[in-house]
UniProtKB/TrEMBL annotation:
One of its GO terms (molecular function) is signaling receptor binding. The gene is Vwde_5. Residues 236-297 form the VWFD domain. GO terms for cellular component: cell surface; extracellular region. Keywords: Disulfide bond, Signal. PANTHER family: EGF-LIKE-DOMAIN, MULTIPLE 7, 8 (PTHR14949), VON WILLEBRAND FACTOR D AND EGF DOMAIN-CONTAINING PROTEIN (PTHR14949:SF52). InterPro entries: Dev_Signal_Modulators, Ig_VWDE, VWF_type-D. The lineage of its organism: Eukaryota, Metazoa, Chordata, Craniata, Vertebrata. This is VWDE protein. It comes from the Eukaryota.
Amino acid sequence: RLTSLSLQPAIAPELVRGRVHLKCSYSHPLSKPQLQYVVLWSRLSGPSQREQIHRETTLESFSCVEMDGTNLRLGDTVFCTVTAFTRDTPEQQSLPEDSKGFYAGIKFLPESLQIAEDGKEHVLTVLSTVPIACPGQDDSCKVTLQLSTEDLGKNSQLPGPPDVALSACQVDLRPALCSESGCAAATVTVTAVADFAQDGNRVSHVRAEPVGRGDLLWRAHTPRDVKVTVRDLPTGNCYSFTDPHIITFDGWRYDNYKVGTFLLCQSVSRVFEVHVRQWDCGGHRSATACNCGVAAH
């Protein structure tokens, strides 16, 4: 009598004659050589809901389905469920065993980011979990992704500067050997834009869209966005005004009546300085200088 056989089904991607397939492999108990298998392929169609896409009975210890862009599409989370039985007693079946869900498509790692307006770069990996298939074997075999950002902050309906900046507008995914981590990858850096405004924490989305591919499989694929939460940091202020009075970042006050060019402030963490130029504006009766120019670099 068959009970639990520990078949341990698992899904992996592969190329078959230049076309993307998913392969469900499972253990074949050596003590039961006459087993047959019923393999049920399904995909998530909603929260905790599955839709059957293929079913077959086989003697092999694996089953394959093609990602044709119609019945099985990029962006699907796919499962295979395997049940075993003997030829003599097909009515007596083992308990069905599920594979882990396999997400077939392009995704970002990490799937969300929390960053601050501190100028630090954060690495975002764009990953394809399925092979990059091309008709030829030339050097131009790739999937190009157009990257964009959208601000979903408090005033997202009003025009304004973006809240995050990307190091590149496009990335290319090129063919590579598939591993547990994926089949192709590219990286881009994300940096929060310092807007010098006390506007609270804001949310942006980073999205990728395949371009330049003629085949249905990639053309119809829209990868999941990355949610980027930008943490607002207090903005420092310093002042130089009238004849001129100086107020530093930490609130100290003093006067500078001299004529010439002076270093007003300098960053200790990056290459940034502000210079001011002062000229004599007090006449013969008083030694007074006024700001006449400023340069930031």
